[in-house]
Amino acid sequence: MRIYKVGGAVRDRLLGKPVTDIDWVVVGATTEEMLAKGFRPVGADFPVFLHPKSGEEYALARTERKSGRGYGGFTFHASPEVTLEEDLIRRDLTINAMAEDDQQNLTDPYHGQRDLEARLLRHVSPAFAEDPLRVLRVARFAARYAALGFTVAPETLELMRQLSESGELEALTPERSWKEISRALMEDQPQVFVEVLRACGALKVLMPEVDALFGVPQPPAHHPEIDTGTHTLSVLQQAALHKQPLTVRWACLLHDLGKGLTPEEEWPRHIAHEFKGLKLIKAVNERFKVPRDCQELALLVGEYHTHGHRALELKPSTLLELLQSFDIYRRPQRFEEFIAACEMDARGRKGLEERSYPQADYLRGAATAARSVAVQPLLEKGFKGPELGEAIKRERLKALKAYKEAAST
Does residue 316 fall inside a structural domain? Predict the structure, then answer.
């Protein structure tokens, strides 16, 4: 029995990055031997065991063979005869196909270290094209390591293009796709994830609504970058720079989908794109079974982001409707995330990345003014039921009028 550290832990140590998760592969062992040493079995598909003390995962060396469509369409074979090299060749990228023993002696049969130095994301073998999930994984790694200068090798991008055209991407489950998408959005350069998917044709398959934004112009006076797709990537980049949570990043990616529906004869204007985009945002949310908090914020940002930008001009009644739509009294955090998404949208414009966004503090102040209305005095006046609701609304409107007057002086 020989035990090796494999994959990301080896890669990140060689890159000088912090190692968080460690994967181990065991060569020359049987399931019975692992159980005898106190390892606990997990997973039904292939032999993976939890270490009796550390709880880390140890997998028996295995080979795999394509047996069906999609991510799960594989037959695995694990036995003491499977070599380390045979286990490593089934991995996606050369930089993930290295192993080291307890003395840090490197086993690198597919030249992962060379590709690390060349800053290349290259597939290990033609079997790469058997797993459609790898298209998303490579795009995610491109986003993670873009700051270090990594790019996708041309021949790997070509395989990704073939996978995108094969229909295999449609076989991915929503859960697997969302796991990769959400992880990629939380990388330091999530816009690179979208760029790579677009470069290999996968964006058109997975999110045609986002792909349709590229080549669609916007008014240069408001959008010096002009192209809507370019703007979307810039907004996503700003969200990452400002360490926004996943909810905000997802909303930033989808906020302008309605502009992809504007007829060419109406370009570069996009009248009512906020409302037109809602059905597209819903479709993307449903396609990937997106968590509810991300779904809700994306829809609200899509519908109201231009309200956010015009906050200083809004009538008190419109401002109150906006606050009510977000249920700021019970869900203040969601309104804060809306403000953040609006600010990222404003900053995601060429040359305007550092411009101040006074609308943010104005909206926060408006929310505070509306929340400051006390309900108890109205109850003491005898209001109840629908009348109480109307009375609260009148008082909040009065508070917002006073707030707007004070802010304008």
Answer: no
CATH of the domain at 53: 3.30.460.10
Number of H helices and E strands in the chain, helices first, is 20, 11
User: Residue 178: enclosing H or E segment and its boundaries?
Assistant: helix 174-185
Instruction: Among 110, 137, 156, identify where a domain stops.
Output: 110
How many domains are there within the chain? Answer: 2
pLDDT tens figures, 124-174: 999 899 899 999 999 999 999 999 999 999 999 999 999 999 999 999 999
Q: How far apart are CA 54 and CA 37, in angstroms?
A: 13
Nearest CA among 85, 163, 165 for reference residue 131: 163
- The predicted-structure confidence for 204-238, as pLDDT tens digits, reads as follows 999 999 999 999 999 999 999 999 999 999 999 99
Q: Residue 199 and residue 192: Cα distance in Å, rounded?
A: 10
Inside any domain, residue 27: yes
Dihedral, 75, 76, 79, 82 alpha carbons, nearest 10: 110
Q: What φ, ψ does residue 264 adopt, rounded to 5°?
A: -55, -35
Rounded distance, CA 291 to CA 293, Å?
6
Q: Please give the residue range of the domain that contains residue 386.
A: 372-408
In a domain, 28, yes or no: yes
Structure tokens at 128: 């790469």
Nearest to 27 by CA among 81, 89, 92, 93: 81
Q: Which residue has the tokens 């690179």?
A: 192
Distances (CA, A) of 199 to 122, 123, 139, 161, 203: 16, 17, 10, 8, 8
Picking from 86, 110, 134, the residue at the C-terminal end of a domain is 110
* pLDDT bracket for residue 68 (50, 70, 90): low
Q: Which run of H or of E encompasses 251?
A: helix 246-254
pLDDT in tens, 323-355: 999 999 999 999 999 999 999 999 999 999 999
